[in-house]
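ARCHIVE CARD
CATEGORY: sequence design from structure
SOURCE FIELD: tokenized fold
FIELD CONTENT:
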């Protein structure tokens, strides 16, 4: 999907679900890290934390007790509706969630000690600008090889770049902006979705297959996919991610 399509997708699913997949039943095998656990380990009582592409703010709110001030930014109006509801229900006084473009952030230079970004695009130049000297940036992104058997089955993502393209691009951009000690990791985990309903929930709430469910043939393709990839543990696919940790 291009950037316009991603924005439209998140505007559609945001009010209903945000970035909350807790109702899905699935198992993962081979996950190498938890990004927000690593963010927690970097926090101090005086830290100022920015979360880029915070979605419904679910992960950010769980970190509220770990830092002095936590700010999430999100561009999607739909996601902001869910974030506002989540924030109001949490009663966390040190969390702010703002609608803002990560390419034009309205913060002073060097304002944040820690910046996190999970599964959202970011601007390396703006990230460098608002991160304080000595600060740390942590991002996890979806690799091009994610859910590869689903993508092949539906055949609607032919424009995907070769695996590793985004990782290499971000790594080069961060280096060019003066980041140091740039550390990169990848994992390709196996996922087992317990039922076809769990898999449908994923496809309707994550931008994996463009316009899933809007073509008459989609559920016939899905039925064939389930038959081919059903195992004793569930319906098998993969979760491929990369992580970058860089210091300012």
């Amino acid at each position: 999907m291009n950037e316009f399509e991603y924005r439209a997708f998140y505007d559609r699913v945001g009010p209903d679900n945000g970035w909350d997949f807790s109702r899905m039943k699935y198992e993962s095998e081979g996950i190498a890290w938890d990004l927000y656990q690593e963010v927690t380990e970097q926090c101090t009582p005086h830290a100022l934390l920015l979360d880029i592409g915070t979605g419904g703010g679910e992960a950010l709110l769980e970190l509220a007790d770990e830092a002095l001030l936590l700010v999430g930014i999100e561009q999607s109006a739909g996601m902001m509706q869910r974030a506002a509801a989540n924030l109001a229900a949490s009663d966390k006084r040190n969390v702010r969630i703002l609608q803002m473009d990560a390419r034009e952030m309205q913060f002073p230079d060097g304002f944040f000690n820690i910046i996190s970004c999970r599964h959202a695009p970011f601007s390396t130049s703006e990230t460098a600008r608002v991160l304080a000297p000595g600060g740390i940036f942590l991002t996890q992104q979806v690799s091009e090889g994610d859910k590869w058997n689903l993508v092949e089955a539906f055949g609607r993502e032919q424009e995907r770049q070769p695996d590793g393209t985004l990782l290499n691009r971000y790594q080069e951009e961060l280096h060019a902006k003066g980041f140091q000690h740039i550390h990169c990791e990848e994992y390709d985990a196996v996922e087992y979705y317990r039922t076809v309903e769990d898999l449908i929930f994923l496809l309707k709430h994550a931008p994996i297959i463009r316009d899933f469910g809007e073509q008459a043939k989609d559920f016939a393709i899905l039925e064939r996919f389930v038959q081919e990839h059903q195992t004793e543990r569930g319906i098998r696919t993969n979760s491929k991610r990369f992580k970058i940790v860089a210091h300012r």
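CARD ANNOTATION: The CA atoms of residues 74 and 117 lie 11 Å apart. The chain has a mean pLDDT of 90.
SHELF: design records, drawer C
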